[in-house]
Amino acid sequence: MSTLLLENIDTLATFDEQRRVFKNAWILIRENIIESLGTGKFEGKPVDQRLNLYGYVVLPGLINLHHHFFQALLKNIPSLQDVSLFRWLRDMYLLMGEVRDEDLDIATRINVAELLLTGCTTAVDHNYIRANNELHHDTEIKAAQEMGIRFHHARGSNSQGQKDGALTPDHLVEDEDDILADTERLIKTYHDPKFGGMIRIENAPCAPFLVTRRLWIESIEMARKYGVGNHTHLAQSPEDDQFVRNTFGKKSVVWAEEVGWVGPDVWYAHATILDDEEMAIIKRTGTGICNCPNSNMYTAAGTCKVTPMLKQGGFKIGLGVDGSAANNSSNMLREARNALLMQRAFYGADAMSPTQALEVAILGGAMILRRGDIGMIKPGMVADIIGVDFRKLPFAGGIHDPVAGLIFCEVDRVDLSIVNGKMRVANGQLVGIDLPALVNEGNRLGRELVRRMEKNNGYSISNPGWRRAYPYDPMLESF
Which of 453, 427, 442, 382 shows the shortest CA–CA distance to 63? Predict the structure, then answer.
């Protein structure tokens, strides 16, 4: 069995139970498992490969709990730049209706590439496309598999359309029997529950008012039969929360508990609109929360109460970048930084520390995904490891606290990423991926997708506008 030694590590943050941090450390990996670690000179048997990580800070890979990969081709669209969530969803659904298999394949590869380069080693994608003969969930799973990231495919769904009072265009609605059958097929085909499993399937209806009560109940019953997780959007904005109250006559989390959507195998994306009663239900049931700060700021959706929940204790909170069209980025390290800054803006300078931000992005994700094989660097764990070289400009003068520097010094990308014992990023570059070719193909397909949407719906969404900060010429006025 092959062995890899990571040696001369400047700072090793293990994130283990004692949160140990070592200097001048080494890690021995055998196949895909961390066999041992220590400090000083490695005195063990000869190894197959050595990697000198002098100047590096090393830690477990980050875990992205919420994404929409298909949106990689839909970044920075003018009509989506300055609107609230429900208005944003109007055009997004029309764009989603134009996605083809080729688009989904390239979009998945683009997002996985950015996630790997920014420290993510495990990713969840909530894919609520309408599956048909020309568009398949399998396409995304296979693309993620080929890119080498640890992947949880959350099989999303929309079973109610505009004729039912929902937001989804009727032609994008799926039959509920088809949804259940396809989810079961994906579980049987791809789900790997074993220790270190690289592909797992989750059950993920899109949002409370986008599928029927029947699907909420039957889908989670099926998921629990197979032992897979359950994921959805909940309380993601004032509009969203009010829609639930108007439709069901209940608060979002109260409604979720009524249909069985609480428990340690359930997690909600966003959850920005929660009152004390709802937070108590979440805590009592062990339900998880995925904070998506960049997306929430972009759509003015609100702020997840991460700081109050952490101070109270007993909550499971993770981090997600959300879809590319609501974030325009898949940068996990930047997401962790902005999670900290957003909490401080609302709750004070001591609201969240850098280590807390990283724990949410690592340990919180592992807990919510119910994975005891990732999230820590210690013997017996799967080797999902990232490293950042501190001998670079952003860290000049910031060497005093390398772990905090990952958050405060605004890291652009990692220099090392190992997923399941295999090198996916080395010297800051993706291994075995032609990134310029991937970017060019994404731009081509993105342009074509938007043009199809504009042609088929009779209006333009891609003409940039210009909003003046000054209605006059400030230079002329100053003379």
Answer: 382
Please report, to the nearest 10 degrees, the dihedral formed by the alpha carbons of residues 451, 455, 459, 465 taken in order.
20
Q: Average pLDDT over the chain, rounded to whole?
A: 96
3-state DSSP assignment of residue 150: strand
For CA atoms 377, 118, 1, 24, the dihedral sign is negative
Residues 32 and 24 sit within 8 Å (Cβ to Cβ): no
Q: Which residue has the higher pLDDT, 51 or 134?
A: 51
**Is 424 a residue whose pLDDT tops 90?**
yes
Please tell me the CATH code under which domain 3-60+377-430 is placed.
2.30.40.10
> Could you tell me which residue, 477 or 208, shows the higher pLDDT?
208
Rounded Cα distance, 423 and 445, in Å: 29
The pLDDT of residue 208: 94
Q: What is the pLDDT of residue 204?
A: 99
Query: What CATH code would you report for 62-368?
Result: 3.20.20.140
Do 354 and 407 meet the contact criterion of CB atoms below 8 Å apart? yes
Q: Where are the domains of the chain?
A: 3-60+377-430, 62-368
Closest CA to 96 of 439, 463, 452: 452
Q: Which residues contact 434 (CB under 8 A, 6 or more apart)?
A: none
Task: Give the Cβ contact number of residue 46 at 10 Å.
Answer: 7
Strand 21-30 and strand 33-39: the pairing is antiparallel
Q: How far is CA 462 from the centre of its chain?
A: 26
List pLDDT tens digits, range 168-201.
Answer: 999 999 999 999 999 999 999 999 999 999 999 9
The candidate with the shortest Cα–Cα distance to 299, out of 83, 66, 26, 33, is 83
Write phi, then psi, for 58 (nearest 5 degrees): -120, 140
**Could you give the dihedral angle defined by the CA atoms of residues 228, 309, 295 and 441, in that order, rounded to the nearest 10 degrees?**
-40
Closest CA to 149 of 122, 131, 173, 175: 122
For Cα atoms 208, 210, 215, give the angle at the middle one, nearest 5 degrees: 75
CA count, 13 A, side-chain hemisphere, 314? 9
- Say which DSSP state 61 is in: P
**Residues 160-174: tens digit of each pLDDT:** 999 998 889 999 999
What torsion do the CA atoms of 393, 398, 399, 404 make, to the nearest 10 degrees? -110
Closest CA to 287 of 308, 248, 314: 314
How many Cβ atoms are within 10 Å of 391's Cβ, its own excluded? 12
Q: Which of 255, 291, 250, 287 is nearest to 272 (CA)?
A: 291
Q: How far is CA 15 from the centre of its chain?
A: 20
3-state helix, strand, coil in the chain (%, to 5): 40, 20, 40
Dihedrals φ, ψ of 362, to 5°? -120, -70
